Amino acid sequence: MLQPFERFQAGYIDRLIGLGKRYIISQTYTRARGHFDGQEMPILFSDYDDAGQAKIHYKAVIGDRFASLIQLTNPRHRAQVEKMLKPGSRYHVYWNTVKSAAALKRKIDQEYSAHIRRYIFNNTSWRIDAHQTVRPSLEVTFGELFMILRWSGQTLRVKFAEIESA
């Protein structure tokens, strides 16, 4: 299972505040679940500069027991985030940001091109000639990873989990 996101570090807190991204939504990060022995809890942080957008995301994941709306400028919230990031914490916190988009693109091209072809063949009416190419890209919405496929003026948005299982 692809796990593309960076681990969140305490140093990012001040940087995010400096960029005006004061709001974070936390939620369970299922893409990292298989990487631990079961005692640790993977959490995904998504940052926002707009309180309204953060609330929309929060409402979308409110059923998740680890969902919360964090305001980094609130001392209690910041202290809780810092506690989660300390060594020995049972939380492994990820941030929905990738270190290198180019490296991620290479990985997807190398490891998932056959999956993409199978998905397209089995789930669309697209019949792509050998000289034509599909342009895949990734997008994150409410903590869920999606693949955007573009071909011949058409666009398809698919949960990445569906591509992986194809």
Note down, in words, how this protein is organized:
It is a single chain. With about 170 residues, this protein is α+β, with helices and mostly antiparallel strands. The protein folds into two domains: about 90 residues, no CATH class; about 60 residues. The chain contains five helices and eight strands. The strands form two sheets. Strands 1-5-3-2-4 form a five-stranded mixed sheet, with helices on both faces. Strands 6-7-8 form a three-stranded antiparallel sheet. The longest helix has 23 residues.
Rg, Å, rounded: 18 Å
Q: Give the distance, in angstroms, between the N- and C-terminal Cα atoms.
A: 13 Å
Shape: elongated
Look at the structure and give the mean pLDDT.
92
Query: Main sheet: which strands, in order across?
Result: 1-5-3-2-4
Helix content: 25-40%
Number of strands: 8
Which key terms come to mind for this protein?
single chain; 166 residues; alpha+beta; 2 domains; three-stranded antiparallel sheet; 5 helices; 8 strands
